[in-house]
Amino acid sequence: MILDDVSFAIPPGRIVALLGQNGAGKTTTLRLMLSLDNGSGKTLFNGKRYQELRYPARTVGVMLDTVYAYPKHTACRHLAVIAAGAGLPTETIAPALDSVGLSTSRGPRVGDFSLGMRQRLSLAAALLGEPRILVLDEPGNGLDPFGREHLSGLLLELTGRGCTILLSSHDLDTTAGLADDILLLDGGKLRVQTTLKEFLTLGAGGVLRVRSDDPAHLAQLIERLGGVVLSVTRGRYRVSGLRAETLARSAQREKLLVTELFEDEARPDEAFRAALKQTTDGTASTVSGAS
Amino acid sequence: MTAPALVRLEFARLRDRRSIPVSFILVVVVGGIFSLVVTGLASAVADSQSVAVEEIVLFIIQRGSVAPPVAGVLAALLVGAEFGDGTVFTHALIQPRRLKLALGYLTGSTLLGAALAVIGAGVALVLLLVIRPGGMLPPVPAVLIAVSGHLILAVGWAVTGVAFALILRSSGAAAALTLLGPLVIEGLLSTAANSIAPWLGRLSDLLPFRAAAALGAPLTPDQPALLVPVPDTWPVGVQLAAFGIGILIVVGAAVLSFRYRGLPQR
């Protein structure tokens, strides 16, 4: 079984990030929601299953992790093909391309697109029917910082117009960081369902920044105490899941010289990894939040 | 996506002259070949009754008889390419009802092929009028029967090609099976059946494309037979029924496979 008992509801106008490591089941969840895979569950969009929607492209915009296009087509032609199949007027093509920052003039063929351009085109295809619901699979993949910034702005603008967005990500990047609510998948199970604010505090109360003259010994000690090493930069460890007092006393007992020990706030990506580690270890219970 | 939507989409795809998709060329070529064989057959019968056949017309007749298997391979490539490019996802998102989508592929390809065949027929007619300024003689019943037989065989082969593509999800494998199945594998099966028991050999004559051999029978002695002629052990009606049932089984398996399997990641 790839997914087990994954159930959630998304209120209108919210951005929800579906987070999880590679292989956690994010894409499978989205594929099942869209009937691209067969499973026992069901997903309702505005009270109807995807198969029951008369004009799916006008209700749900879908961006899968790769753009599926005839490689010899231009961006315009690709969208024209989709519009023809979906019964949409060709007048929708130019605004969709404009909104993602792609040129409407004859440009390179899709087969020659960079990953970032393919992502933009895929998003344009999702926006073609001006849907009120968007399902986006890793929309920030392959985008440069400017592209991500543009995408973030677009997503905020869309939610401002009443769009509901479900996006998947393997990290709490700038795009997923816009989310109102978080769903954390691990091993095919929905481990965390909460607001972003609560999720960021899930990493057991901040982060310790610690350094020692014996880094190997320090690493062993952190592991024994159940801490999670989030990063190591020039011998300086950023650790979650440990209290400063506990670490200091243990180091003293083991005659380990700690040259630096600070309490710090967790960055979003660190909170994500800490929460992920805790949920996979079973040290954090599933949180049900507002979504 | 329904069949008309699929046809709209296919034409939208084909309109891009820069793309020059393989399917476009193949559809035009096979439409042209088929039209040429139809008109060529008519011309050949007329010729056999009156004047000698020009070399070029004879060439068309002899080469044109390969149109049905080419139609099958083309159909397999058309649908198999959707899996290769991953555009079957796009189609499934536009039309999430799989049964409709599968039927759309089957009927859409047929409609598209027929539309292009009409265009090709026009081209072929002009060509033949150029070759034979006197025009063609009116068709006789034997010609109409032969033309209908070839048409049924071509449609059956094309539908089989689409069905194989839906099951195998690969252009190459589907095209190979579409070609080898009727032309080689059925023959091998029949030989094996004959070596086991004579009654089994007789039964193997009802394998779909062996049963359909009469449909592709040559009209003139110079024209090579497309399918190996089988002994006249079964009535024509039984043979045609076996051909139809065989195709229905393959199409049914394809629809079920497409309906109940998830779509593969590219």
TrEMBL record, chain B:
Highest taxon of the lineage: Bacteria
**Transmembrane region positions?**
20-44, 56-81, 102-131, 143-168, 175-200, 236-258
Q: Does the record's keyword annotation contain Transmembrane?
A: yes
Keywords for this protein = Membrane, Transmembrane, Transmembrane helix
Instruction: Identify this protein by name.
Output: Uncharacterized protein
